[in-house]
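Bug: token stream looks shifted between consecutive jobs. Job 1:
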Amino acid sequence: MKLNPEFITHEMAGSHITVPVGSAAEKFRGIIKSNETAAFIIECLKSETTADAIVDKMLEVYEVERDVAAAGVEKVLAKLRELDALE
């Protein structure tokens, strides 16, 4: 899976946002403001990856239990799927 190319990301002053462009902006008129963890997950999605690979990367960066990381990844992925932000 990968982030839909019609969703662009931007980071400024510690804030991370994801914005739809093109036809995606016709379906979803808004922005996604992410916390640090969600932003990390979205950044991982800029290249083809899997949920397990994202969890593995999180475990390298954050001090968290695998099941907690996996639940967080699934929550973010579910929201992105709902918004058609994933390919």
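Job 2, same session, no restart:
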Amino acid sequence: MLCRGKVQPYMERKTAKEFPQELLDLFDRYVHGEIDRRNFLDGAKKYAVGGLTATAIWESLRPNYAWAQQVAKDDSRIKTESVTVPSPEGNGNIRGYLVHPAKGSKFAAVLVVHENRGLNPYIEDVARRLGTEGFIAFAPDGLTSVGGYPGDDEKGAAAFGKVDRVKMTEDFVAAARWLKARPDCTGKLGAVGFCFGGGIVNTLAVRMGTDLNAAVPFYGGQPKAEDAAKIKAPMMLQYAGLDKRITDGWPAFEEVLKANHVTYTAYIYDGANHGFHNDTTPRYDEAAAKLAWKRTTDFFHKYLA
């Protein structure tokens, strides 16, 4: 339950167990644009007791990117740079964060697709983690056409709503094809994405066929059955047990994958919320996130070798 005494500072890390599940579900609706901040605050008021305010609850649930660094930007194992990729069928260009191992000349590659807020520090760190695993990792910013990730998640959400979704999808397809064709890439390409990014990874699997060699969507929306039938890439699907909005769509998706003889493995993490891999919010589930990430990197090493 929520702390009923002194309001804790935003910098103090909390866990999902400290919040009523109904409140976490309400926040999930806010994150995904079903309600705005005012509606969230109105709904959170009944949990604002003992000196705690609805605004303080909102602050405690928001991402804190001070927690988002598992691999330092200047880690000696990797090299990083900002690059721009042509996207003629999309918004013209898409910028992104490129990470590659410091030693070696040719590597398998992984596209990293962000949530519905743009290329934030958490996603950049995920790219660096993949770099330390020996992969080239590219994390594009779907908000490029509206100025890029603005440094604030609420502003990022507003910017996200202004981008043509069809063109944004083409931006990610262009980024994936550019990454696979790089001279320092072995030609093996994987993709991992979270929330919105998980849905994009599913879309890439539909669009790219055998050109995509491995796909790992984290709590991503499933494609339509007729589109899912086009998937050829081996897939590892990561779902949260408490995330009914997304996880309830898995059985129907699985039927299509089975019918089309797609190689896949799916995991549902009991007691975990949507966003459990994002280590900047209380929805982060350390045990589930670490296990899911180990499974993810093992999967990429297997299918991108």
